[in-house]
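Q: I'm building a small set of examples for a reading group on sequence design. Run inverse folding on the following structure and report the sequence directly after it, with nothing in between.
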């Protein structure tokens, strides 16, 4: 033992063979200033043209950074994001956008993995996005847990982006819609958008997709599956998942029932007859038949022009949505409105003022503020 060594009992002769070294002196912690400088350098924003050039080349890192700007609420980021989107817009649109919904546990992730691999195996580029306004990452939000799509996450032709974090449905949906534009400009010609089939988010997904797929389970009543009739009416295809093992027969029975049920719905403007199929996402059975339906749908609606008509309608819908969202935020974030709102809310609650007069006064105040 060298003299320099501190005394460690383990270094005594009876413990021969064992040598305990002195600890290593820890380096000085990095000063706050250099950390700041490092982070600033890391966070340095590119110019809109740099992002756009990268996106058009299919650079995933720049695409992801641009999507982060889209999701950011900072004004500086939003302005840059809007410039990027505007420049990407002429390069977008050349895709098929497919919405996928179904209650938690129906097998959406498993299906997207199987369906997604089927698509990329055919040489296509696939982006998987999600709309989940209620999500808190810790609660296992949809797509948040990438391990659920292991094969697809490792596929260089697939890009998976979880839902923008919780916010108003309008806000979350707008961000997803803008992300579609960026993904398409980056060459992703197939877009899957997942949502949980329990609330209004499927209306939002429906308003940004060409084809709407509803996943269902056999043997569970509609109430149990939380699927509203309106959502079934939106579907271009219903697929009864988990049609494997001793569930096959039940799935086939459900298929007949759903076929009868959707027959009663009014004819779709697209002139498309929505079908009911069975599949097993887990065993990758029936995936090809679903794909065939998507292709057939695209062909038919492109031929009868509905495909483009729907997209145009969606564009104007999103214009109005964005205006409404902006106006609302502007109104409710205004400090004078906030203050008066509290007072008038109290008046309304104590029957001192009617809701309509209170609303009128607030709107009056707002118009004077402008
Ligand atoms: P999600 O919540 O809708 O995304 O559902 P998941 O994809 O996470 O699937 C929920 C559970 O159902 C998982 O345990 C899956 O392994 C299982 N599952 C999904 N698809 C099938 C299927 O086709 N057959 C069977 N037997 N199980 C499936």
């Amino acid at each position: 033992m060298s003299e320099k060594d501190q005394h460690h009992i383990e270094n005594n002769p009876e413990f021969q063979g064992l040598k305990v070294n002195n600890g290593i002196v820890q380096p000085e912690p990095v000063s706050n200033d250099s950390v700041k400088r490092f982070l600033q350098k890391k966070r340095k924003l590119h110019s809109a043209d740099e992002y756009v050039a990268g996106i058009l080349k299919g650079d995933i890192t720049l695409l992801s950074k641009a999507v982060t700007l889209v999701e950011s609420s900072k004004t500086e980021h939003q302005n840059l994001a809007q410039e990027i989107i505007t420049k990407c817009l002429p390069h977008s649109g050349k895709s098929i956008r497919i919405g996928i919904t179904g209650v938690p546990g129906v097998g959406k992730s498993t299906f997207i993995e199987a369906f997604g691999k089927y698509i990329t195996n055919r040489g296509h580029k696939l982006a998987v996005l999600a709309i989940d306004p209620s999500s808190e990452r810790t609660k296992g939000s949809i797509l948040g847990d990438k391990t659920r799509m292991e094969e697809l996450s490792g596929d260089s032709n697939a890009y998976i982006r979880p839902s923008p974090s919780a916010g108003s449905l309008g806000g979350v949906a707008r961000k997803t819609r803008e992300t579609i534009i960026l993904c398409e400009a980056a060459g992703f010609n197939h877009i899957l958008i997942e949502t949980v089939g329990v609330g209004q988010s499927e209306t939002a997904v429906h308003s940004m997709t060409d084809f709407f797929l509803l996943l269902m389970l056999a043997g569970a009543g509609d109430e149990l599956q939380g699927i509203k009739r309106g959502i079934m009416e939106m579907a271009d295809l219903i697929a009864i998942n988990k049609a494997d093992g001793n569930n096959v027969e039940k799935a086939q029975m459900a298929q007949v029932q759903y076929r009868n049920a959707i027959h009663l719905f009014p004819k779709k403007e697209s002139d498309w007859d929505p079908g009911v199929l069975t599949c097993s996402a887990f065993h990758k059975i029936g995936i090809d038949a679903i794909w065939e339906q998507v292709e057939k749908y695209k062909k038919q609606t492109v031929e009868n022009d509905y495909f483009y008509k729907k997209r145009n309608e969606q564009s104007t819908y999103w214009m109005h949505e964005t205006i409404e969202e902006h106006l609302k935020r502007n109104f409710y974030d205004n400090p004078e409105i906030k203050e008066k709102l509290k007072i008038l809310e109290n008046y309304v609650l104590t029957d001192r003022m009617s809701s309509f007069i209170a609303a009128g006064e607030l709107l009056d105040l707002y118009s004077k503020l402008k």
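The chain has three domains: 42-91, 93-304, 316-369.
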